[in-house]
Amino acid sequence: MGLPVIGPRTGWLAERLADELLFDTDEQAVQIAERLATDAEFYLLHAKRAYASTADLAPAVVAARYLEAIK
C-alpha cells in the first residue's frame, strides 16, 4: 500500500492507473520502472496516489461497510 504499480495499457488495471504508469511495450515498462527508481519526485507523487487509492481498504473500514450492508 503506497507502492506505485505499473501496468499494460490494456485491460481492467489500466482504468485504475495513472497514464504515466501505463506501457505498451516492454521497453516502455523498463523506462517507467527506471524513472520510478531514479526520479524521487515522480516516485513520491505516485506513491502518494497509490497510498490514497488504498486508504478505504483498511480492515476496519471494510468490516464496517460489510456490517452496514448486511443490516
Mean pLDDT: 92
Oligomer: single chain
End-to-end separation in angstroms reads: 30 Å
Strand order of the largest sheet: 1-2
Poorly predicted ranges = none
Largest sheet: 2 strands, parallel
| Percent of residues in helices | 55-70%
What is the count of β-strands?
2
Identify the overall geometry. Answer: elongated
Structural class: mainly alpha
Strand content: 5-15%
Q: From the alpha-carbon coordinates, what is the Rg to the nearest angstrom?
A: 15 Å
Quickly count the helices: 3
Sequence of secondary-structure elements: EEHHH
Topology, please?
Blueprint: E1 7-8, E2 22-23, H1 26-38, H2 40-54, H3 59-70
Parallel strand pairs: 1-2
Descriptive account of the structure:
- It contains 3 helices and 2 strands.
- With 71 residues, it is mainly alpha-helical.
- It is elongated.
- The two termini are 30 Å apart.
